[in-house]
Amino acid sequence: MQGASREAYAAARAQLDGLTDAGALATASDDILAVAGLLNAEPRLRRAVSDPAR
Questions:
Q1: Are 25 and 33 a contacting pair, CB within 8 Å?
Q2: 10 backbone φψ class: left, alpha, beta (φ>0; ψ -120 to 50)
Q3: What is the pLDDT of residues 1-37, one digit of tens each?
Q4: Cβ within 8 Å of residue 48, ≥6 positions away
Q5: What pLDDT is attached to residue 23?
Q6: What is the pTM of this model?
Q7: Cα dist from 14 to 23, 24, 27, 36, 43, whole Å
Q8: Which of 6, 24, 30, 43 is the one with CA 20 to 30 A from 14?
Q9: pLDDT confidence of residue 54
Q10: What spatial distance separates the first Cα and last Cα of the chain, rounded to whole Å?
Q11: Can you spell out the DSSP letters for 11-41?
């Protein structure tokens, strides 16, 4: 990474770390995995969500 990118990443990371706690991260990760499981189990839904024409 270049210097400016590294500094911007560090600033964004520090701000994100200040806004989140372990419980919120666990909830978000559980929600993401639930959506991934649903999309895996429902091919029609997966196609509908990924179709740019819709």
A1: no
A2: alpha
A3: 577 899 999 998 888 887 778 788 888 889 999 999 9
A4: 54
A5: 84
A6: 0.57
A7: 18, 16, 20, 28, 38
A8: 30
A9: 73
A10: 37
A11: HHHHHHHHH--HHHHHHHHHHHHHHHHHHHH
